[in-house]
């Protein structure tokens, strides 16, 4: 496995998977922005309590989070909801992570498909201890055409969860993709819809209190977005390149809060010489929101002119980032000017590189992301940006023998308006706190090993030290996290996957005596297996939280203990 790789399902067709592919992804990746859970995450916020598995790359402006439907139930774990790697893929793109792990997040592992696909279309269905039922459908037009389109749909619901009898949920997910590849340019488009409904609770008193129960019935939201972009395909004989992307997204919840986003992200560059490219990246976002009954208009703008030099051994990027944010309900405007610089040098050609960088930017927070990450938010939320005043990092990355890849990085950050989720002493819903200045010192290390296509294993470690200013701690964030995984395939029939997520003690909030409430260290172990009976039929079984660990993702909201799901996959 050469470098840290991640496979992204994109409905486009390219036959060249060499350096031409890498260059193409550099231009095209702006389309596929998605935030969830995490979020997901404050996709551009590396410190917002986002305990998710993510990719970061200097060419990826937002974190590419899981763009796939669930089979694991949401809010069960401190990582992205996971699905067995049995999925429709219109085209496999790989992205080399550009050594930008974002503390306290973990770089995503290279995760080969657990089930090699022999057919393009898939139907996956099953039932579990709490999931009753779940189903996924993937349909596409094929892999060998210039025009490529596909459809995905999934449904999962739970009518009990073994913790609180009334806690149940359902989620429907749909996605349409279109890709048109011409000789000189490409057009990509996608639309996604998520409908999420669930009962909220904060202990058994919710069931005994009619007012609390009625409020719990209001929990749920719908999110919809459409993205499209027009971009040049990589051509070494062309002096210019461009990528013009636009998108809209909409959030509406049962508490009458809503957001409408319009995003425009033009990029471009001109090649002065074979090794030197001068260009600029930019982003403009307009948000019309209604929070707690009050309308607001928010504007976020960012531009980063830069110059890049890359001769294959030495790569240098130098630029300046200008960012600004304003909210009609806030008398303050937020802005930042900072560097955007990185240098990389191969000390052992094609094997080991040293990397160092320094950047600063405005991070656009929004209710759309916050609600997807923490669905137990209070209906009144103050929206401010986070400002990464300083991000300095240095380390090593490389691969040995095409089987072992690694990365190690130390970093120091200063973040203004760090997002913190806080549950008040007598509250059932979370409030947003903003720490005036958070300082983070940390270390990230990752190791991945792959032996042919049969066995792979890896580990990722994050150690972080936090110093806060106006908030006592970064609640719900663990300073220590270790992720372990392993995959084994026997005779192209049976695939077994195991993963363990180890978290150190975490501060969860303050009690009535203003003492910090902490959650002890814990481990979450998951095991799954898939057996192929024929080319078009397989069965699977997954066990989550195998050790029956009791923990909370969000303070006051117990997570499920051991659970499982099983079902079949049909390829056609």
Describe the structure.
The protein has 572 residues and is mainly beta. The chain has one domain: TonB-dependent receptor, beta-barrel domain (Maltoporin, Chain A). Helices cover 5% and strands 56% of the residues. The longest helix is centred in the first third of the chain and has 10 residues. The N terminus is likely disordered.
Layout of helices and strands, plus pairs?
Layout: E1 5-9, H1 19-28, E2 53-54, E3 92-96, E4 106-107, E5 122-128, E6 131-140, E7 147-158, E8 169-181, E9 185-198, H2 205-208, H3 210-216, E10 220-232, E11 240-253, E12 258-271, E13 276-291, E14 294-310, E15 314-327, E16 333-348, E17 352-363, H4 367-373, E18 386-400, E19 404-416, E20 418-423, E21 430-435, E22 438-451, E23 455-467, E24 480-490, E25 494-503, E26 506-510, E27 516-519, E28 522-534, E29 537-544, E30 552-554, E31 557-558, E32 563-571
Features:
single chain; 572 residues; mainly beta; Maltoporin, Chain A; 22-stranded antiparallel beta barrel; two-stranded antiparallel ribbon; disordered N terminus
Q: Which fold name fills CATH's third level, the topology?
A: Maltoporin, Chain A
Please count the beta strands (DSSP E, at least 2 residues each): 32
**Mind telling me the C-alpha Rg?**
23 Å
How many angstroms separate the termini? 30 Å
As a percent range, the share of helical residues equals under 10%
CATH superfamily: TonB-dependent receptor, beta-barrel domain
Shape: globular
Kindly provide the name of the CATH class.
Mainly Beta
| Number of separate domains | 1
